[in-house]
Amino acid sequence: MLKDVTFGQYYPAKSFVHRMDPRVKILLVIAYIVFVFLIKSFIGFLPLIVFFSFTVALSRVPVGSVFRSVKGILFLVIFAAVLNLFFYGGNDAKVLEIAGYPLKWWIFSVTEQGIINAAFMSLRLVLLVLGTCVLTLTTTPMDLTEGIESLLKPLKYIKFPVHELALIMSIALRFIPTLMEETDRIVNAQKSRGADFESGNIFRRIKAMVPILIPLLVSAFRRAEELGDAMDSRCYSGAKGRTKYKVLRMGYRDLLGAFAAALVLTAIILINIYFPHIV
Amino acid sequence: MNALEIKNLDFAYEGGKNVLSGINLTVSEGEFVCLLGRNGSGKSTLARLINGLLLPARGSVCVFGMDSAEKKNLFEIRKRAGMVFQNPDNQTVASIVEDDLAFGPENVGVERAEIGERISYALSAVGMEEFRYATPSKLSGGQKQRIAIAGVLALKPDMLILDESTAMLDPKGRAEVTSVVRELNKNGMTVISITHYMDEAVDSDRVIVLSEGKIVMQGVPAEIFSRAEELARYGLNVPKAAYIAKKLRENGLPIAEGIYEGEALEKALCELFQKG
Ligand SMILES: Nc1ncnc2c1ncn2[C@@H]1O[C@H](COP(=O)(O)OP(=O)(O)OP(=O)(O)O)[C@@H](O)[C@H]1O
Ligand SMILES: [Mg+2]
Questions:
Q1: Residue of A182, B11, B29, B211 with fewest CB within 10 Å of its CB?
Q2: d(Cα A87, Cα A78) in Å, to the nearest integer?
Q3: B47 pLDDT above the threshold of 80
Q4: Do A142 and B116 lie within an 8 Å CB cutoff?
Q5: In sequence order, what E strands does chain A have?
Q6: pLDDT tens string B221-250
């Protein structure tokens, strides 16, 4: 049941994208996000969409899985679109008319710019989510943690606890299935005592969660204490004097990725210069 | 040099009364010692003291000649006396077996290439070579506990302390773990095993019974398990085979004293039947 839910949405495969260095992938996603915000016109999205499509094709992740991620933010996209549609201000904005009736009511009005803006914003949001989701689909949480740790390494010089942060992340990931299993067990135990989690209004249901959350919390603290002892007896004493077994290595794939990103950036800058208008 | 030397040890948790008092215990290298006692008798506390997780209030604990009272020894003590706990789920730190086994050696600063070798060694010692890239949460209880043992073995210890490491396992998992520990002991590992299963204690070199923080019985299994009444006073049973042998003896069958273990009982009974 709950146990089978894996954290994130990793899609196991051995593709070109899967094998890239997680650090490079994280940096590429950051670059991608910056690109999305650099783009000023619809035509500017073209190189980015080509880049994205290529990546998805290379990753061998089914297109359906990639697009499923948009479902989660559909509400946000619609909300942003509606806001843009109705509230696009500006005095010069021309209110649209349908069969002689102006599309205007109280403070709401539909303008041509409003429609264009709504479409532009929606596209931006969708591309943003699609891009980041390729990262989580092709990188295990463990690798992501390693990547983040390695990228944050310079922060060590200002005494930022990089190693501790990475260890906390990887322990959290490690305990997700364990705690899921435990939640399952507690839910079943409470159900067998007649607890009802499925009926009643929202407040009732939230209240019904209390007998699950409290034992879960208590057990999590007990586990934390035991884990602390186990770590101590395995000689853990912080980052000092520690070696690292796993090393991340960059390869030709990462070089190609960076090169592709540079191409996309050039294309976007050129398009921004030659097509400065949104449509 | 003795693997463990405890002298006049007293210990109390903060604000409580003595949990252990007047403990004197010596364990020689390569010995297999079983620690028995009812709940709350202080077994886990003693184990933690040996591993340096707790420090004595009075007296001393020396592991391979190193006194745990000296802070600089703690690291080395934990390296040489590894501890395996009861719940296998709360001992793994990583989502991949290999990464978890690397944790100990990484902590003590072992070189990368050697960590790889140590992982292979630890996995083969617990017979789980093919699980190097597995996810611990998907393994069976016995396998998880063997991985926990491997995690300790990766530090190349000379002593293994097991605090009820089989308590949460089914009979199959328990058998897996006990046979791994036994094999390690055969190859020279000193073992201190805390257990509630008397049948696990019958093969040990020495049995120690703890009650209310004191060592109340000590000796080879044959001797300890022949003192059933005394054991019962400390909340312990004799192993099943010893119990059956005793009942048979009481009912007039000529079964020798000192039979406390399944195989010996079987042999005695067979001999009896052959005689007619
Ligand atoms: N962290 C602690 N703080 C205070 N008292 C403790 C703590 N841990 C254990 N004790 C007390 O110390 C005594 C001995 O506990 P210990 O855990 O050593 O017993 P045990 O023999 O391992 O028992 P069990 O068979 O249940 O594991 C008990 O009375 C217990 O209540
Ligand atoms: Mg205990």
A1: B29
A2: 14
A3: yes
A4: no
A5: 97-98, 101-102, 104-105, 108-109
A6: 988 988 888 998 998 887 787 778 888 888
In this prediction, residue A195 carries a pLDDT of 78
Domains along chain B with CATH numbers: 4-238 (3.40.50.300)
CA dist A219 and A45 (Å) reads: 50
For chain A, what are the domain ranges?
Answer: 2-175+246-274
Alpha carbon distance B82, B50 (integer Å): 10
| ipTM, two decimals | 0.87
Decide if pLDDT at B256 tops 50.
Answer: yes
Report every protein residue that has its C-beta within 5 angstroms of ion ligand 2. B 44
Q: In this predicted model, what pLDDT tens digit does every residue of A195-252 receive, in sequence order?
A: 777 777 888 888 888 888 999 999 999 999 999 999 999 999 888 889 999 888 889 9
Report the alpha-carbon distance of residue B34 to residue B191 in Å, rounded: 8
Query: Is B99 close to A245, i.e. CB distance below 8 A?
Result: yes
Q: What is the largest CA-CA distance in chain B?
A: 66
Give dist(CA A140, CA A146) in Å, integer. Answer: 10
Please choose, from the candidates A114, A47, A131, A46, the residue with its C-alpha nearest in 3D space to the C-alpha of residue A80.
A114
Residue given tokens 């089989």 in the structure block: B166
Mean pLDDT score of chain B: 92
- In the block, tokens 């035509």 appear at A43
**Placement of tokens 């009736």 in the chain:** A101
Cα separation of A230 and A235, whole Å? 9
- pLDDT of A56 > 90? The answer is yes
How is residue B189 written in tokens? 């590992």
Could you give the percent of chain B with pLDDT greater than 90? Answer: 72
Token pair in block for residue B103: 């944790």
